[in-house]
Structures are given as C-alpha cells and as structure tokens.
Amino acid sequence: MDWMLTRCEEVDEEELSGNEADSEDEGYSDEIADKDGLLLKMTISRANSRKSRPESSGSRLSRLGPDLDHSESDEENLPHRPRDHPPEIDFTTVDINDETAFDTDLEDKGSGTTPGVSIDLVADFQYLRTAYAIDTNLKFSDNLFAALKTTTAYDPTGRTAYIEGCKKVGVVPASYFLRHMNDPHLSMKHHGLGAQGMRAIAMSLVSNTSVLTLDLSDNWLGHPGGHAVCEMLRDNCFITHLDLSDNKFGLQTSESLSRTLQQNSTLTHVTLSGNNFDDKAAVHFSDALMNTTKLEYLDLSRNLFGESAGIVLGPAIADNSSLKEINLSWNSIRRKGAVAIAQGVKNNIYLKKINLAWNGFGLEGAIALGDALKGNQTLEEMDLTNNRVTPEGAVLIGKGVSVNETLTTLRLGRNPMQTAGCYGICAAILRNPNCALREIDFKDILVNKDFDDIFKQVQEQIPDIKMRHGGMEPPKKPRARIHPMVKLTNYIEKNNLRLVDFFNKFDKDGSMSVTYEEFQQGIECARAALQKLVKSESLQDTGIKLTQEEVQILLNELDSDGDGEINFSEMVSGHTGFQESQQENINVILTASQPRPVTT
C-alpha cells in the first residue's frame, strides 16, 4: 500500500484525456491540489502481488483525473522535478478515518487483486523509515500538518497524535490500532511493538478518552517502552485495566511503575507477570502497595522473586487498604519470605483472593498460613498448588480451616501431602460447623477408601461442596502365592536334611508310608520345634510355615495314586518332578531374554 505525494508536471489536455480511463482503474484514490499547483494523490492498493522496487518507483507518478481545474499557464510555471527522484511520504495527509490505511497486519486479503500502485513493504522498509522523518524539501509539508492540527483542535481518539508520533519515531503505523483505538477494550498483545512502537502509541493514548482496558502483553517493550507507558499514564485518567505482562522490564522499569501506581488515581487492575522482576524490584513494589489507595488487583506472577522479596512484600500487603486480589504464583518465595507473606495475609482485612501456587512454602509456610487463616476473616480464595506441603503441613493448615468462616475455595493440588493430608483437611471441616468452603482441589493426589468415607461425612454437612482429587489409590496387588512344594524344599535345604531323613520324621512306624494325619502332625511338630529354636520374627524364613490349604495341596500332589497315603517313592518322584519343572521354567525365561540372532 502506498501513500504517494506527486508533483504536477507539464501535462497537456491530450495526456489528461488519455489517462482518464486509467484513473478509473485505480483501487481507491484521493487528490488534493494546493495553491502552488502541487497535487497530493493518495492511493491505496491491497494487491497481493507486490511490484518490485524498480517497477514501483517507475510508476510513482500519479495519473491525473479529468476534473483537475488548472490552466496551462499555471502548469508551465511549475518548477520541473526529475522523474527519478524518490517520492516523499507524509503521514499527516492520511485519512485517519479510513480503516484500510496503514494495513500492516498479516491478514488474508483474498486471492483477488486490485489494480493500483503499491510497493513491497518488506523490501521498502528502510525506505519508509527514512521517509517518515520531517521533510524539509517539500515546502508545503509543514503547512499541511499545521492545517491538519487547526482542523482538529482536539482529537479525543488520539489518531492525529499517533500519525505524528509514527512520523517522528520512524515506525510503520499499526492498522489494527487505528481501527480499534475507539474500543473500550483495546488488545495490542503479540504485535511486536518494541520501544519505538510503544512511544508512538503512548503519544496517542495521552488524549484518548475511549480506551478503558489496555492489553500490551508480549511486545518486548523493555525499559524505554515501559517508561513511555508510565509517562502516558501520568496524563491519561481513563485507563483502569492494564496488562503489561511478558515485556522484559527488569529493575529499571519497576521504579517507574512504582511511581506511576502511587500517582495514578484510576488504575485498578494491573498485570505485570513475566517481567524478570527480582528481589531488588520487590522493594519498589512494596512502596507502591503501601501508598496506593485505588489498586484492587495486582499480578506479579512468573517473576524472579525469592525469599528476600517475600520479606519485603509481606508488610506491604498487611498495610495495603485497597487490594482485593494479588497473584504471586510461579516465583521462588520460601522460608522467611513465605512466613512474611502469611503474616501479611493475616493482618490484611481487605484481601479476598491470593494465589501463591508454584512457590516453595513448605512446612514453615504451612504453619504460618494455618495461623493466618485463624486470624483472617475476609479471605475467600487461597491457592497453594505445588508448594511442598507435606501431610503434617496439611494438618496444620487444617487447624486454620477448623475456625475460619470466610474461606470458600482452597487449592492444595500437586503437593506431597498424600491421602493423609487430604484426610486432615476434611477432618478440620467436620470440626467447623460454620465452615464456608465450597470448593476443595486436591489435584493429582491419590486418595484411599478412608478419605472417601470421611468426605461423605463432609458432604452431609455441606451438600453443595465440590472436591477434586487425583483418583482412588489402586488396590494393593496380592502377593504372589508360593507353591507349598517350594516351602518344603526350602525347609529341607535350609536344615541340611536328606529327603529320606525328612520323610522319617513323619514315618514313626517305619513303614515307608505316611497317612494324611501323620503328615499333618509331622508338619505341626516341625513348626513347634522351630518356634523354640528361632525368634518369632524370623519364622517366615523357615520355609515350613504352611496353611491348612497349602498342606492339602501338598498332600494331593504327593499322593499320586490317590490311596490316601504318601509312599517314600511318591515323595521322591514328586520332589524330583517339581524341581525339573522349575528348572524348565528358568530355562524358558533365560532363552526369551537372549537377543535374537541376526539373519541375512
């Protein structure tokens, strides 16, 4: 898209008539002739196929319309200007009400093409930047800008100021901003404005009375851009919600923001997450919290605050009288800093919501927060997700829950508190007849049947309560049953017995045949003898601990002929056969674990 300023040259009536048809093919054009005979022709083209710079530079002379009212004598008196001179661009002559002007957004314009003069924005970017500077070659440039200012003595939208600002700082005006600068909710996130682009926007927002909510997140403004925002907020008294997250401000900008928050009387919601604010920057924000009387919401999440920052911010939270919600999640606040934050919550009588997720409060912070819940009777929501809260810490927080009557939402998900910690919170709710909790979050924490039982009691006390957890613990798998023959073999080997010696312990009459009753009595005698020799805790290792069911299984296997008696030969064959089957199983496992041979 090109905004072109062209000078009328020696044009006769034949050339005018010859170009009349061509002028009708232009996409959208506007012509202004000043008293010196200079023709300002502005042409908008949204053609997808851009002309190269040599082609576009050769077509920069605008076609003149047939209705131009100039005499031939006036045209002859015009000074001659070489055709190959690069045209100058003046954004002060732009129709600021045209939505399609300065179309710098990466929007799909369709596959169709519109005739007109255009240049490649990428190829001519450097040319545009230099052309935005104040033009000293064209004598009528300042006159046009002065005329524009006189015709718009007061511009509440700030469009004129934005065009002038872009010209001064040398940036391409954002068409999206021009189209939406009258909206009460203006979102300029992810536009890549940078410091220079922000300066131009700040110039226009100084006098803008329409924008109430401004989102400038993720624009890499840096300190210069942040300073421009602060300067703008000194004069703008309409913006109430401001989002400056992910702009890499750092320590320098924190001081400017602190002064702005203390001086501005309209800002109520400010988001400053992801700006690399460290413990030193926390000092400036603590000053702002102590002195502001309008700020209701402050988001300082995803920064670099540590223990020292918590120590500084804690007293500031306690002294603040306007803040209703604060977000300190995704920092590294722990130990003394966590205790200081908890003390600040305890002493603040205005705070409604606090987000402390993804810090490191641990046991010390849990103790302090439990004490804070006892003393605070205004807090409604608290998020402690992933804060290293142990089962003991959860029980201590539960002590505060047992007496608190205002807390409605408690989030403790992703903490190593296990089902015991969840049980402790539910038990605390049952001890508080005036408990106001309506939502509990135990995300990613497995619970067991004991917790399920106590939560049913909580539901009887508070029917509309909602609870979220990580699911029920899977039932414990039963231990693999050991074959009774294995126990018998282990007993024989451990006591260095021969199979015949073991059999003789059961065969009291020497008949080399043992009945079921004699075999069971022998097992009981062996068990009694072992109890006298070894300690009770090592009985499981003796290998002779057989249940009645296992004894019956053993008898059925050893009595191969089913006559109700176990012969010595049956015991030998049964014992040998079992050992061979065990060895076969081992060989199968070893064979399966070996890698397959490579085949060609």
From TrEMBL:
Keywords from the named record: Calcium
Gene3D superfamilies registered for this protein in UniProt: EF-hand, Ribonuclease Inhibitor
Signal peptide bounds: none
Record keyword Ubl conjugation present: no
Basic and acidic residues: bias regions: 66-88
Region (Disordered): 1-91
Record bears the keyword Calcium: yes
EF-hand domain location: 494-529, 546-581
Sequence intervals crossing the membrane: none
Acidic residues: compositionally biased ranges: 10-31
A Pfam family: LRR_6
InterPro entries: EF-hand-dom_pair, EF_Hand_1_Ca_BS, EF_hand_dom, Leu-rich_rpt, LRR-containing, LRR_dom_sf
A GO term for molecular function: calcium ion binding
Name this polypeptide is given: Leucine-rich repeat-containing protein 74B-like isoform X6
UniProt lineage: Eukaryota, Metazoa, Spiralia, Lophotrochozoa, Mollusca
Name of the gene: LOC111138432
